[in-house]
Specification:
The structure holds 2 protein chains of 2 kinds. By secondary structure, chain A is mainly alpha-helical. Chain A has 3 helices and no strands. Chain A is flat, with a radius of gyration of 23 Å. Chain B starts with 7 loop residues before the first helix and ends in a 14-residue tail after the last helix. In chain B, 63% of the residues are buried. The model of chain B has no long low-confidence stretch (mean pLDDT 97). Chain B contains 16 helices and 11 strands. By secondary structure, chain B is α/β, with parallel strands linked by helices. The radius of gyration of chain B is 22 Å and the shape is globular. Classes of the chains: A mainly alpha, B alpha/beta. The interface between A and B is large, with 50 and 73 residues.
C-alpha cells in the first residue's frame, strides 16, 4: 500500500507523537519505503503456519505468593517530574 | 605492565594472588579513559569515585577470603547504559531518560557485582538500542578506534569501542537484532548473544521483549566464558529466564573439534551484498576448522532474505508497546503542551514524547503502531510472526545436520559515520545476517577474522541451537588457539 501523510498523521495521533508539517512529509516518505521493504513478506506462503510470538514454548511461570519488600513510596516517586510526596501530579485531564 | 592486553581472567588471578590490587587495575583503566576517551566517546558516564570505592571494598573482601570461587573478582567492566544500576543515571542515550536514576539494579549487573567486579562506567549506544551505528545516541558521538571516521557499529557501539581502545578489559552489551555481534565485528572483538532467556532481562530497559538479550564482549574467549557463567541463570524477577542448569563454560573450551559438523550457510556466504574480504575471511575460517578436524557441510536457511522485513515488523511492534510507558508522568522527561489545549494532560504526554525521543525511536514507534493498528494487524504483524516461525524452522532443520553454523556477521566492514544515517532502509539491511538468531532465540557469536586491506576488522559468525553456548565458545577458543585470530587493540591505542 502507498502511505499518505493522512495515514501518518493518524498513526502519530495513536502513538501520541507530534510532527511539524516538514517532519510529517519526511516520515511519510521514510515509512513508505520501510513499508515497501516489509511488504516483501507477501511473497511467502504462510498458509496454516502457526504465528510465533515468542522464541520459547511459553508456559505460565508460577511461583509461591510470598510477601517481599518492593520499592518504597519515596523511591517510586523519586524520578517523577512532579509529585507532592504522596501522588504523581499531572496537568488537568480536561479543561472547561 | 600493560594491563589492557591481558585476559580479564589473568587480571583476576593476579588480583587473587595479590600481585595487583583491584584498585590498581581500576585506576589503570580509569586513567586510560581519562586520557583517551575524548578521542573515542565510548562512555556516557564514568564515576571514578564510585569505581575506586568499590575496588577498595573488593580488595578488602578478597583479603578477608571472599570471592574465592569468582573467576573475575576485582576486574573492571563497562556496562551498556541501558542496564539499570543504582547510584548513577541510566539514560538509554536518550533525552527522555537523561536524568533517570533507577531505583534498582539489573540482575545481570547485580550478579557481576556479587562476583566482585568493578563497573567503570556506562557506555554509549543507539537511543534505546535502536540502530546499528551508535549514531542515534542523543548524548554522545562514538567513533571506531580503528578509524575515527567510521562507526563502531551499534547499538552496543560504546562497549565495543571501549574494548578495542583498551579502556576496559570486559564489557556488557545487549543484543536485540545484532547489537552485540555487529559492533564486536566492526571493532575486532568477540561478542556473544546468548540464547533468549539464558540471562535475566530484569533491569534491562525494554526495547523488544521477545528478542532482547544481555551478552558480553571481550578480547579473549576465556573471558566471555567466565562472564557468561556469572550472568546466566534463572531469575525470579524475569519469568522468561530459563530455569535450566548453567554449565561450566570454561571447562568445555579445550574440547578438540575433530568430528564437529559445521554448516556453511550458503544463502549468506554466497549473498550478493557481502564484501569480498568478508567472504575470504569465512573461507579462511573453513580451512582452519577443516585443519582442526571439523567436517564442513553446506546448509540452507531458505528464508534468510525475509529475516530483515520480519524483524522490522516485530521489533518495532514490540517497541511501540514498550515505549508507551514514557508519558512524562512517572519518570523521564516532561514538557508541557500549548496553553489552551482541550486536554492539558494529553498535550503534556504528546509534547514530552515528541521532545524526549529522537528520530529513529519515533520512526520505530510509528512503524510498530502502524503494524499493530486496526486493519493492518493481520497483513503485517501476524504475517511477520508466521514468517518468524518459518525462519526458526529453517534453523531447526539445519541443526539436524550440523552442530554449529558458520556465516558472516555483516555484509561489509565498518562503514563511515554519516554514510547510512540518512537512509533507514540501507541501515536496516545491514542486519541481514544477525536478526535471524534473535527471531529464533538461538545463541550467536561474533569472532574476529583479521583485517581487510585498509586495516579494518573483519569477522565471522557462529550460531548454535538454543543453550549450546558452550559449543560456540569451544569453537572460538580453538580458533584462537590455532591463531585464526589474535586478540588485538586498535593500532593507535595499542601503545
Amino acid at each position: 500500500m502507498k502511505l499518505t501523510t493522512d495515514d501518518v498523521k493518524k498513526v502519530a495521533e495513536l502513538a501520541k507523537l507530534e510532527f511539524t508539517a516538514q517532519e510529517l512529509e519526511r516520515f511519510t516518505d521514510q515509512l513508505g519505503r520501510i513499508v515497501e521493504l516489509v511488504e516483501q513478506l507477501g511473497e511467502v506462503d504462510t498458509t496454516g503456519v502457526e504465528p510465533m510470538a515468542h522464541p520459547l514454548d511459553v508456559h505460565t511461570a508460577l511461583r509461591d505468593d510470598q510477601l517481599r519488600t518492593g520499592l518504597t513510596h519515596q523511591a517510586a516517586l523519586a524520578n517523577s517530574p512532579k509529585h507532592d510526596g504522596e501522588f504523581f501530579l499531572v496537568p488537568p485531564v480536561l479543561t472547561r | 605492565m600493560k594491563l589492557e592486553v591481558l585476559p580479564a581472567v589473568t587480571l583476576a588471578s593476579m588480583i587473587a594472588a595479590r600481585e595487583l590490587t583491584s584498585r590498581e587495575a581500576t585506576e589503570y583503566f580509569l586513567s586510560r579513559i581519562r586520557r583517551l576517551d575524548t578521542n573515542v566517546g565510548a562512555f556516557i558516564s564514568v564515576d571514578e569515585e564510585a569505581a575506586l570505592r568499590r575496588a577498595d571494598e573488593v580488595d578488602a573482601r578478597l583479603v578477608a577470603g571472599e570471592f574465592s570461587n569468582s573467576p573475575l573478582a576485582g576486574v573492571p567492566i563497562a556496562i551498556k547504559d541501558i542496564l539499570c544500576m543504582t547510584g548513577s543515571a541510566t539514560t538509554c542515550a536518550s533525552r527522555m531518560l537523561e536524568d533517570f536514576r533507577p531505583p534498582y539494579t539489573a540482575t545481570a549487573v547485580q550478579k557481576l557485582l556479587d562476583a566482585g567486579m568493578v563497573p567503570l562506567g556506562k557506555t554509549n549506544l543507539d537511543e534505546f538500542a535502536m540502530g546499528g551505528s551508535t549514531e542515534s545516541s542523543a548524548l554522545r558521538r562514538t567513533c571506531n578506534p580503528w578509524d575515527p571516521e567510521r562507526t563502531p557499529g551499534g547499538s552496543s557501539g560504546g562497549a565495543a569501542a571501549a574494548l578495542s581502545a583498551g579502556l576496559t578489559p570486559l564489557a556488557i552489551g545487549t543484543d536485540t537484532g545484532g547489537s552485540v555481534r555487529q559492533p564486536a565485528a566492526f571493532c575486532g572483538t568477540l561478542g556473544l548473544k546468548p540464547t533468549y532467556g539464558r540471562v535475566s532481562r530484569y533491569g534491562l530497559i525494554a526495547f523488544a521483549s521477545s528478542l532482547d538479550q544481555v551478552g558480553p564482549l571481550a578480547h579473549h574467549v576465556q573471558d566471555l566464558a567466565a562472564c557468561l557463567n556469572l550472568i546466566a541463570g534463572h531469575d525470579r524477577l524475569d519469568s522468561t529466564s530459563l530455569d535450566v542448569p548453567v554449565p561450566d563454560y570454561a571447562s568445555e573450551l579445550a574440547q578438540p573439534l575433530a568430528g564437529l559438523r559445521v554448516g556453511l550457510i550458503r544463502e549468506q556466504i554466497d549473498n550478493d551484498s557481502i564484501d569480498a574480504a568478508i567472504r575470504d575471511a569465512t573461507l579462511r575460517c573453513q580451512q582452519t576448522l577443516s585443519g582442526l578436524g571439523a567436517e564442513l557441510i553446506d546448509v540452507h536457511l531458505p528464508h534468510t532474505q525475509y529475516s530483515v522485513p520480519t524483524y522490522y515488523l516485530i521489533a518495532p511492534s514490540e517497541a511501540s508497546g514498550n515505549l508507551e510507558r514514557y508519558d512524562g508522568v512517572h519518570y523521564g522527561k516532561r514538557s508541557y503542551g500549548d496553553a489552551g489545549s482541550p486536554s492539558p494532560l494529553e498535550a503534556m504526554i504528546a509534547r514530552s514524547r515528541s521532545e524526549g525521543f529522537g528520530p529513529e525511536v519515533k520512526r520505530r514507534i510509528m512503524l510498530g503502531t502502524f503494524a499493530l493498528s486496526a486493519g493492518y494487524y493481520d497483513a503485517y504483524y501476524k504475517k511477520a510472526l508466521q514468517v518468524r516461525r518459518l525462519i526458526a524452522n529453517d534453523y531447526q532443520q539445519a541443526f539436524t545436520q550440523v552442530d554449529v553454523l558458520l556465516g558472516p556477521v555483516t555484509p561489509t566492514p565498518a562503514f563511515k559515520l554519516g554514510e547510512k544515517s540518512g537512509d533507514p532502509v540501507q541501515m536496516y539491511l545491514e542486519d541481514l545476517f544477525t536478526v535471524g538468531a534473535n527471531l529464533a532465540g538461538i545463541p550467536g557469536l561474533s569472532v574476529p577474522a583479521g583485517c581487510n586491506a585498509q586495516g579494518l576488522p573483519l569477522a565471522v559468525q557462529f550460531q548454535a541451537p538454543a543453550l549450546a553456548e558452550a559449543k560456540l565458545l569451544n569453537v572460538a577458543h580453538q580458533l584462537q588457539q590455532a591463531e585464526f585470530f589474535k586478540p588485538a587493540l586498535a593500532p593507535s591505542f595499542a601503545h
